[in-house]
């Protein structure tokens, strides 16, 4: 049991999960594929590579294939969720409010803009941080699965 749960034995599923997450997010972004099914398929393919070189009965290969595929998928999903959480918390820190309100009296150098019906120019309003984030948000590499 000591050889199963240690730092060395978790490096390979971690790297495989990172690769699956990287390939899945790229394919989901560029080709509009469904990320969760793409990740599950890629995880199964990577697990199949390991199981093919194993010399064991067919039922053991099948069991190891399913378990390894699910471990790789779980690692990829966890890495994606961590990246999405970090990305969303970084977005919420970029926009901070409250935004300054305009002064009630315009300065002498400011003139009203001419309009068709001679009404004054509209007064600027506060920008809601949620609306500002939605307008200016850049597409994220990390997708919700």
Provide key terms for this protein.
61% helix, 4 helices
Q: Unreliable runs, pLDDT <50, ≥5 residues? A: none
Number of strands: 0
| Secondary structure category | mainly alpha
Question: What overall geometry do the principal axes of the alpha carbons give?
Answer: elongated
Q: Biggest β-sheet, characterized?
A: none
End-to-end separation = 33 Å
Mean pLDDT: 78
Beta-strand percent range: under 5%
Taking all Cα atoms into account, the compactness measure Rg is 26 Å
Order of helices and strands: HHHH
Q: What is the number of helical segments per DSSP (H or I, 4+ residues)?
A: 4
Helix content: 55-70%
Account of the protein in words:
With 145 residues, this protein is mostly helical. The protein has a domain of 58 residues. The chain is 61% helix and 0% strand. Helix 1 crosses helix 2, helix 1 packs across helix 3 and helix 2 runs antiparallel to helix 3.
Brief account:
Helix content is 61%, strand content 0%. The chain has 4 helices and no strands. The protein has helices at residues 7-31, 35-52, 58-94, 129-136.
Mind sketching the topology for me?
Layout: H1 7-31, H2 35-52, H3 58-94, H4 129-136
């Amino acid at each position: 049991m000591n050889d199963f749960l240690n730092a060395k034995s978790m490096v390979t599923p971690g790297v495989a999960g990172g690769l699956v997450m990287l390939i899945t997010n790229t394919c989901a972004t560029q080709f509009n594929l469904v990320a969760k099914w793409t990740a599950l398929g890629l995880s199964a393919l990577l697990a199949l590579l390991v199981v093919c070189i194993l010399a064991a009965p067919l039922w053991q290969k099948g069991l190891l294939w399913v378990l390894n595929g699910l471990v790789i998928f779980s690692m990829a999903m966890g890495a994606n969720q961590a990246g999405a959480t970090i990305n969303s918390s970084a977005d919420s820190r970029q926009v901070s409010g409250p935004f300054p309100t305009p002064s009630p009296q315009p300065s002498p150098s400011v003139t009203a803009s001419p309009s068709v019906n001679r009404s004054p120019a509209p007064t600027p309003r506060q920008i809601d941080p949620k609306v500002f984030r939605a307008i200016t948000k850049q597409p994220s590499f990390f997708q919700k699965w």
